[in-house]
Structures are given as C-alpha cells and as structure tokens.
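Late entry, glutamic acid complex.
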Amino acid sequence: MSRMVTTRIAPSPTGDPHVGTAYIALFNYVWARKNGGRFIVRIEDTDRARYVEGAEKQILNMLKWLGLDYDEGPDIGGPHAPYRQSERLDLYKKYAEELVRSGWAYRAFETPEELEKIRKEKGGYDGRARNIPPEEAEARARAGEPHVIRLKVPRPGTTEVRDELRGTVVYDNAEIPDVVLLKSDGYPTYHLANVVDDHLMGVTDVIRGEEWLVSTPIHVLLYRAFGWELPKFYHMPLLRAPGGAKLSKRTGHTSVDYYREQGILPEALRNYLSLMGFSMPDGREIFTLEEMIEAFDWKRVHVGAPVFDWEKLVWMNGKYIREVLSLDELAERVKPFLEAAGLDWRSDAYLKKVLELMRPRFETLKEFPEKARYFFTDDFDYEEKAVKEIQKGAEILRELKGLLESLPDFRPATTEPAIKAFAEERGLKLRKVMQPLRAAITGRLATPGMYEMLEVLGKDTVLRRLDRALKLIEA
Ligand code: GLU
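Prediction complete; structure with ligand written out below:
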C-alpha cells in the first residue's frame, strides 16, 4: 500500500528565520498539498550550543505569515505540533542501542583529547573502537564510562543514493565516516535524530537544501541498518546572492523578518521564492500559491543556482501592490507602516483615496509613508529643488492662491479648466504653474497627478500650505 505523501521541514532554531528555510518550506508545502498529504514542522533543537531562544517562534510566525500552515493531528504530535527533538531524547537513545545490538553501531570511548590526536594523525576517526569486543564494551558502558555510539559503516561496500532531481550516485563506503549517532551526553546527532524522526513521522519525501546532500549516504545507510523503507530525496539548489556566492549574511539579507520589515508582502516573497526553483508551464511570473500547487510537477523544478535578487523581489512586490492586491487589502497592509511612522490616516476612505493615487508610485510598504507623508501631515520637509521652484514661482503662486480661493469646490472638473485658463491668460506654459504649486503643497516635484491630488488634499489644506510656502521663502 502506498503511504500518504508526507513532507516536513526540520529547521534548527539557531537564529533569525532564513529565507532558505522559507523557500524549502514552500516546496515541501506545495508537494504535500498537491498530493492531499501532510506537511510537518519538526524543530531540530538538539544542538544546545547553537540554540537561540525565541528562534522557534520566529520560524512558526514566518510560516504563518507566508500562509504555509503545517498539519497537526494525534498521529503527528497532536496539540504539541510542531515536534521538538529535545522532547524525544529517550527515543533516539533507544534506537542507537538497537543498532549496537544488531551490529550496525559500536561504542567508542575515546576522550576529546584522544580524538583530537587521532584526527591530527589520521585526518579523521579511524574506527579503532570497532575492535573492542562487544562484551567488554557493554561492561564499560554499564560501569558508566563516558562514550559515544558510532555508525559501523560496512566496509568494503558501496551505498547508492538516489536523488529525484539529480539522479543516482554510488558512494564507496570508504568515503563514508563512522559518524557519531549518540553523543556522550545522551543527545543524538543530526543524522540519527533526523532519520529516526523521518521514519516515525512517516515522511515519504525529503525535500531539503543541497547542503544536506553530503549527509544523505549516511542516512541511506541508517535506513538500511534499521530495515526501514527509504523516502524519496530531493535536494533543492541553494539560493545565491547576485554574483553567484551562496546567500549569506555576508552576501545579502537572509532573515525573512528583514524582508517583512522592509515592506515586502508575504504573497510577493512567496511568489518570488517559487520562481527560485520552479516555473509555470506558460512562463507566467505572477501566480498564487493555489496556482502553483495546481501546476506543480517535479519536471518543472530546476536545479540551476537560483539568484535571490533584491531588485527583482522589489519589482515583484510593486506588481503585487499595483495589480494584485485589492485596495482594501492594500490599506490594511500599509496601516502598520503608517503607524510606525507616526502618521494618522484619518479614515479608511481617505487612506484608500490616497492609495489610489500613490499605488503606481511605491514598491514596498515601507516606502509608502515616506512618499505619501504630505497626504497625512503638514509636517514634511521641502526638497531643495522644491524650494527653488517656490522661489521662482512666488509671483505666480500669490495670484494662483486668489484663484483657488475663489473656486466653489476642488473637483478636477473645476480645478483643471480654471488652472489651465489661468496659465493661458498669462501666456505661461502649464508647467510653470504646476511645478511651483506642486512644490508648495507637497514639498517635492514628483507627485501623483495635480488635479486628483488637489481634490484629495482638499481646499483648506492646499490654501494653508500655499500660505506657508510663501512665508517660507520670505523668511
Ligand atoms: N536540521 C536540519 C536543518 O537545519 C535539517 C536538514 C534536513 O532537512 O534534513 O536544516
């Protein structure tokens, strides 16, 4: 009987949630959903030295933010999901002991100093504890002598590793070290805990970053040792920074929290990460998670080094802002950024009017309060160029103020013909009127269309700012 497709991510809580984890989570999620299977989160927190308080929560928040919800259920951890390896230590010990009994593992008693010496002389552990007679090893262990349990790699021999994306590689077992499975403090190593859990959790498809490819022969041997059915392995290409180096703190920003704080939308990040390993059959670049699930096929996954490029991500974010989100959604998304900037948006209706005008003019949520500040407060700075325009156009502005005061309302149907006639009567190019006006009421020279903007700002604000601008240059 075929098993239910089960995928997982197994992040270690060692720091900020990494975009690489988001990318791998995405492909695991999509494959599980495509098959009506399940997607598990397992926190691999057995490396206590690298453990970072709060990192697990950040990982879970990241998944939630991206809309990649994981499954819970009595058979996979129940209300305790996600799994935490630190809560399952007895289990790993039991399985390590089982391998000792079956002859697939052995106890090794070297002290850290001895190991260091062996490493220096032999370039790595040479398997010398294999020669300790089992009865002796058991007696020493019972007497409480500190020791580790190591995998007894069958030598001579070969190990075949099949990767669904890369094909099959046959390793000479001479290249595979007798890795430690259980440490002297009773903690499992990554290899043991990872394989035991993948098996117990019914993981059928291991989708992970290619940096784990080197560990896979060890894992395959462990499956063989336990007599367990192998999962399928898919090693996804690592994200690269522009230039080709591995994406890291040195070459770029790796924390998903950073992208969120910069005002990247979860939809855009998710969409962009999809493109790091997958393309739609019709080549479309903008697509939903559901559309990806629908179209997903491993044949459409490429293993070439994907470049994670901020510029491209921002471009995609801008597309989501302009074309994908509804105005209501967009309003909700910018609110926290307005709040953070200390700006009051008055009402949803007003905010939406501003967004309608500004939507083509910003690409990240964080840019919005910067670029749209003058819609929410008089407390904005005048760009130097704007001050010059005001100075040059001071005479025009004084006259224009009279005209604007006299208008019955500020609808474009009213202001547009009036301002045009004003320019014409004076033999002025329209620009000569617009630029100083724009500068006076917004402090800048690039803004949305004048007539729509006048309407949204309203007569009181416009006249107040005109006065202020004229005073500014007199002072
Ligand atoms: N704990 C490993 C990590 O931090 C898991 C790798 C795997 O998926 O097997 O990514």
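The mean pLDDT is 96. Will revisit in the morning.
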